[in-house]
Amino acid sequence: MDIYQQIWDADQSGNGVKPILAGADEAPETGYVRVVNTDGPATPSGELKVLSEVKIPEHKRTTYDLVRALFDNYALDEREAEVETPEERAEVHELLEAIIDTAPMQVARAYISEESGTPVSRDRWYATLTEQWFRRFSQSGDRDLSGFEHVFVGEQEGPKVQGYHFWYKYHLDDGLASHIDRNRFPGFKDDRILYLRGHYKDGQEQFPESVTVSYRWDAPDYDAGRTRPLTKPIGGFFVGCSVEGLMAMGAVRAHRGARAPKEAVINGARYDMKLFLDQSQRFVRTFYPVYLGPAGNQPTGSATPHGGGGQAPGVVSGSVKIVAALVNPMGHDDGEETVTLVNTGIDTVSLDGWFLVDKMRNRFGIKDVTLAPGMATTVLLPRHSVQLSNKGGEIRLVDRAGSTTHLVTYSKAQADRQGETIIF
């Protein structure tokens, strides 16, 4: 399994909270973030909240509270010198002690140890995290930079926001800023995010795990005692991961000995895990995801779609097959199309976290479906998910690791027969 997916899953079992789309069922006992992914400008009032509802249960709050304490410890302008107090150093230590033994950190540490061929003790892991994320460095005339400030807090470069790739910080700034600022000053307000527009392509709006947006941030300048209006022309971040989850993914990506992949597949979507280090190649300068598309639609060389029979190039054979589809139902198609799956293997298979993907890269997440050997299920496709074109198309079954396990195609002639189920 993809190392980034492993870290994500470990984080969700710990302090991560599940990102969900509007209309999806929530689970307050484990936490959730409801995501409004829309490709377009804000309403005239600019009131759209990308993270419209956040529930972090009490038993997961510790590391969120500890990272929040660090948000007002930094100078806003990246050119300014940082003055770190003993209390602020203690806050960094307290955060690292709280996250170092968490599940995503354990996965990251084990991966680095195995891939680099070097044992990583707890003390060495603590030193690695400190070095990557909190050690100060200078670059291009800017002094006292750090990966943590850039990625988790955000900083100023002229009129623009630099960094700022942590969903929880965005959530607090978007209406709950009083939870960050311990010292108020003129111009303070709870809501200091003005959403401008979303930037989505290739179906990203159907994946709640990440957002790509433009916004204005009325950024607090604690040294000057005022806010400064800054703009993020376009920026992206994962949604739902805890501070330790995001830091663990970044630590793996940044570790030179581990040589981790530059791309990730997380819950069916592919990401370019963008990383820039300082000039010495020791410290994180920035780390953030760039959405590339659904995992089931990555380039496959000379692969050509086809229906039943042999296995298509680029498809990993699995026991669960697409055996039928109602592409052109009687009446309106929306919400009436179906895909039928059967388990041809000898083992029971859980399809929770799997996806159906159409030719246009739209996808539908399957949940609460388990198939015993020889059993079948018919999946009803809701509106605004997978769209089975009446002009011909393809249907992919993608597992939770992002691999296409079965691919079928159908022609316009087959789709023309209204009300008939196509057998593959």
Describe the structure.
The chain has 424 residues and is α+β, with helices and mostly antiparallel strands. The protein contains nine helices and 23 strands. It has helices at 3-13, 62-68, 86-99, 103-116, 122-134, 147-153, 167-173, 243-254, 412-415; strands spanning 18-21, 32-35, 51-55, 137-139, 142-145, 155-157, 160-162, 193-198, 210-221, 226-238, 263-266, 269-277, 284-294, 320-326, 338-343, 349-350, 355-358, 363-365, 370-371, 376-380, 393-398, 404-410, 422-423. A four-stranded antiparallel beta sheet has the order 20-15-14-23, with no helix packed on it. Helix 1 runs antiparallel to helix 4 and helix 4 (103-116) runs parallel beside helix 8 (243-254). The radius of gyration is 23 Å and the shape is globular. The two termini are 29 Å apart. Residues 298-314 have low confidence and may be disordered.
Characterize this entry briefly.
With 424 residues, this protein is an alpha+beta fold. It has helices at residues 3-13, 62-68, 86-99, 103-116, 122-134, 147-153, 167-173, 243-254, 412-415, and strands spanning 18-21, 32-35, 51-55, 137-139, 142-145, 155-157, 160-162, 193-198, 210-221, 226-238, 263-266, 269-277, 284-294, 320-326, 338-343, 349-350, 355-358, 363-365, 370-371, 376-380, 393-398, 404-410, 422-423.
Strand content: 25-35%
The unreliable regions are 298-314
> Into which percent range does the helicity of residues fall?
10-25%
Helix run count:
9
Which secondary-structure class do the elements indicate?
alpha+beta
Distance between the termini: 29 Å
Global shape: globular
Supply Rg.
23 Å
Tell me about the largest β-sheet: 4 strands, antiparallel
What is the average per-residue confidence, as pLDDT, rounded to a whole number?
88
Number of strands: 23
Oligomer: single chain
Order of strands, main sheet, comes to: 20-15-14-23
